[in-house]
């Protein structure tokens, strides 16, 4: 099941709205699975309203939704772009910006002010708002710590639209270095031929021009836009390259046989507007591979092109094949893997599972965590921050899972993201850290705590006390 995490529910709804001016084909009804875990998005809305009372209502209102059920319908792909009440590009960007309008100091929404139009945006970051000079001055000692980063957040939030128009990412080629020699994004960008020309094409494109003609903000300098596009390219490719990292860490060779990867806890974050080609960077990472199937499994998987049955046979040679299943992972295992309707995974990946967030989410994840442990499946989880890493390690140790290692992810997204309703906090980055797991702790053999030596990352199974305390010695 999906975890309690990731870009705030409203932002995901904005992504859905972001493609609204384009005409899409009608969506067929999606049948809800009988079994559901805790509603992660509902928990997210509740957290939002604790920080800024009434903010979730504003978000629903701006997206032409009357209730949370409308929101879930949109996330399940059962609400067309026109249903959001968006008729023009200016409309789209203005509605998105309106969902960020609340005083960062007193938390008041526009409707709670004598003049709803009196909110003023910070001129430096163009991200946070204040109801007056007094609140801005009171908030400045805190805000100044994050103002520069929040400027990047606000810029990337707009430029992200170019992912939905297809301008981002730019075309890539097969890697000119072996995967083990690519240590991070600097190496990855160095392999991109004619990089500056590709970036210039995006900056000069029709949709970049439309964006700044309708965003209600001045167009930034080209240097800033280039850096934003680069950050968003890393955000787009972070998931497939993290899967590739997992294969390398566990010594799973795509050149030896066709592989199956299960993405557990997949939701709209991984599947909304996902195209069949979105994980093709794995083909460039492992040229000559025998075929890789990536199966998205989760109760919040969205209907779309990848909503097709998993393969019972190996993936087509040289291709990355995306498929999905809408439901709980342990149900999928029983109905598809055990009956051989789907292949047993060579690797299981969970992007920000979020089982650390609250007891209800942990309870929903528990059957899956125990299944992954007891079937000794190679597992790679990612988390946003060191705090999430500590909390997740604590739980995994208590479940007597063999933790092979944990470290900073060299393919973490470089796009900073703010806490939606609490902007004056350190931004987070998707998949900042990874945790590698394999089977029960009791079955771990001496020396089994080492991952692939070629990658230079290895870790020891932490004690419960160590997982809860200082984790830095375990980071690569």
From TrEMBL:
Top-rank lineage group of the source organism: Eukaryota
GO molecular function, one term: zinc ion binding
Keywords tagged on the record: Metal-binding, Zinc, Zinc-finger
Protein name (database record): Putative MSS51-like protein, mitochondrial
Keyword Zinc-finger found: yes
Residues annotated as domain MYND-type: 103-147
Biased composition regions of type Low complexity, renumbered to the chain: 9-20
Organism per entry: Patagioenas fasciata monilis
Keyword Transferase: no
Chain intervals for the UniProt region annotation (Disordered): 1-42, 447-476
